[in-house]
Amino acid sequence: MTARMVRSGDVRLWSESIGDPAAPPLLLVAGDVTSSRGWPDEWVALLVAAGLRVLRYDHRDTGRSTHREFAAHPYGFDDLAADALAVLDGWGVASAHVLGMGLGGGLVQLIAVAAPDRLRSATLLCTHALGVDFARNWALARAGEPSPDEFPTPRPWFVRRGEQPSAAADLESALAERVEWHRLLSGEELPFDAAEFRRIELRDVEHTGTWRSREPHPHALLPQVLVERGAGLARISTPTLVLQAPLDPINPPPHGRLLAAAIPGARCAEIAGMGHALPDAVHRPLVRHLLDQVRRVEQRRPSDQEEPGEGGTGT
Question: How far apart are CA 46 and CA 295, in angstroms?
Answer without folding.
Answer: 16
